[in-house]
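Forum: Protein Structure Q&A
Topic: Joint prediction for protein chains with partners

I've read a bunch of threads here and the consensus seems to be that you should model interacting components together rather than docking separate models afterwards. I'd like to see that in practice. Below is the full input, 349 residues plus whatever partners are listed. Could one of the regulars post the assembled result?
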Amino acid sequence: MTTAAETKHSTGMGRDLIVYICLLALAGIQFFIAYQNISTSQMFLRMLSVAVVEAGLALLFFMHLSENRGLKWFVLIFTVAVVLGMQYGWSDSFRLVDGVPWAR
Amino acid sequence: MGVFAFAALDKALNKAVDKALNDEARTQSKVGGNVSQADLSIHGQVSRTGATETMTEPTFSVSAKKMAMWLFIIADSATFAGCLVAYGFIRNATPDWPRPFHSITNVAIMTLILLTSSLTMLLGVRSADEGDKAKAFRFTMITAVLGILFAVLHIREWMGMIGEGATLFHNPWGTPLFSSLFFSITGLHLLHVTGGVIALIAVGLKYQVGRYNADDLEVTGLYWHFVDLVWMFVVPLVYLLNLAH
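Posted by a regular:
Agreed with the consensus. Here's the joint model:
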């Protein structure tokens, strides 16, 4: 069912192609970072940042979230809240390796 | 006195609501469609503020099917996030984590295929919106074929690793946790790809014979883009961070 207010994808194919090329380029950057001589934590942070940008592009343009403001915030707030909530255990993973200072 | 007046007003409003719903049902049945109470509630609720304004927009102005898919995507992203966070936790807490991947060619090709399949899915949905049924069907099937190709490459990679002695409970390069996490996370993603391919073929075929419409194709497309989105996180965390230097 299509509602009257539901926005149809009026933008041209050009934008889709640009987003596709951007995604390919960002994926290429991730592969490039993988061959850099940097620490694992630095590599992790850089790759994750690129992945977040990729995911944002896919959500906004491929999944048309940019065309629906209310739905965009609904999806983002719930997803980000859940994902952030999962991060509470990281300090414990450091404690398992280093012992101190987390064990005190 | 006020209570009685309110009760009378409430009764009158309820009667008006029932009448409006019945009129809607009668109108729909005249044009040949079967209308259930669920269909009417999807269209919107009858406003109690005025007689002229009868219907309101559904939540976020999206159809119920699309909303259901978005809710599924939110829940499923929590599942994948849970798996990836658990992987990160264990990787961080395990000294001498193995880095067994020597080549990224296969995973690069898989990424290219999945990203391209997202584009073909978009083109399919766009064609369906424009009413070009044949083109929409063609692009949907191309997307499904690309999904199958991705799955084949994925299984080929798995077979290579299994051939080297890696299983769910055994890892020839060090801690068995690596293999467990690798096969679990990539397996969960592969399961989603397989489900997506089946959905694409089923919805595409039913769209072609007229049983499904462009909206159904778009909802399936949303799922497919989500599968692509998850891969954007699986590749760097599971493959690229474990690349041998």
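Residues 29-51 of chain B have pLDDT under 50 and may be disordered.
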